[in-house]
Write a structure and sequence with these properties.
Layout (H helix, E strand, L loop, with lengths): L8 H5 L4 E4 L17 E5 L10 E5 L10 H12 L4 E6 L9 H15 L1 H4 L6 E6 L1 H11 L22 E4 L12 H8 L6 H6 L13 E6 L8 H12 L4 E6 L14 H12 L1
């Protein structure tokens, strides 16, 4: 069973981060590539105020790398400073292919729930947030069923991997034409990148349902890397299925903006989360 040693709890409560593997006995489908991954770096609120919420954060990088500093650790520090537990997920990416990244994300959600009592948040208030390709992973976690291949069969796997809320930020919400982000698709699917049945199965906007959790979507009109139509289409699907949702499209800002220049979506995120606490 994967767990953080008890002597690490004082470290977390002091405000220092803690990095742990998703699987103590080795990740399923692990090879020689990307040693040390997948892993989770946890930040807990260092003060008495806590909302009871927790969030897995998925950096972007086109399934070819991680923008882990400005789309990972900076976000976790910001979120935890507002009373929300946060965990940066360094999921596996190319040359690893589907289902590995989604398996990592689903394990991270389960792992957070496993530690909810110890880390003092509500296991029914565990969400996921991601940027760009990490936004695709976030939207997949919110809409697709659990991966059953390669599960460890431990107590953590028995927990739900469905997030209680999702925040896709300038997400690759579709890998299907006409707005497909082909780089992410190739890195995620490899030689199966043109298998249209698989592409459709992994385009989250096609799988929104009444059971999709509430979503907050963030994008900018100037984004040329992943055009804002990704968020617009996903939001429309949410509305069609009566899923509580909020969409913010800002005029200014390039793709990959993160929280640069204290972008106004940060306070919007905190307000939205507090309204759901």
């Amino acid at each position: 069973m994967s767990s953080a040693p008890s002597n690490h709890l004082d470290t977390l409560k002091s405000g220092l981060p803690l990095t742990i593997p998703l699987w103590e006995d080795g990740a399923p489908f692990a090879g020689d590539d990307l040693p040390g991954l997948p892993r989770l770096t946890v930040y807990l609120p260092a003060h008495d105020y806590k909302t009871g919420q927790a969030m897995v954060i998925c950096p972007g990088g086109g399934y070819a790398m991680h923008a882990v500093a400005h789309e990972g650790h900076r976000i976790a520090r910001y979120v935890s400073s507002h009373g929300i537990a946060a965990a940066v997920l360094e999921y596996r990416y190319a040359p690893y292919r589907h289902p590995v990244p989604l398996l990592d994300a689903q394990r991270a959600i389960r792992l957070m729930r496993h530690h909810a009592a110890e880390w003092e948040f509500d296991p029914a208030q565990v969400g996921i947030l991601g940027f760009s390709a990490g936004g695709h992973l976030t939207a997949c976690a919110a809409t697709l069923p659990p991966i059953t291949e390669g599960l460890a069969g431990d107590a953590i796997d028995a927990l739900s991997c469905r997030p209680d809320f999702a925040v896709p930020i300038y997400p690759v919400a579709s890998i299907f034409e006409p707005y497909a982000h082909l780089g992410s698709r190739r890195n995620l699917l490899g030689e199966k990148a043109n298998d249209m049945e698989l592409v459709a199965a992994l385009s989250p906007e096609r799988h929104v349902s009444e059971s999709t959790p509430p979503c907050l979507l963030i994008h900018t009109s100037e984004d040329q890397g992943v055009v804002p139509e990704h968020s617009i289409i996903f939001y429309q699907r949410l509305r069609q299925h009566n899923v509580p949702a909020e969409l913010h499209i800002y005029e200014k800002g390039p793709h990959g903006i993160g929280l640069a220049q204290n972008h106004p979506w940060g306070p919007v995120l905190i307000s939205w989360l507090k309204n759901r606490a």
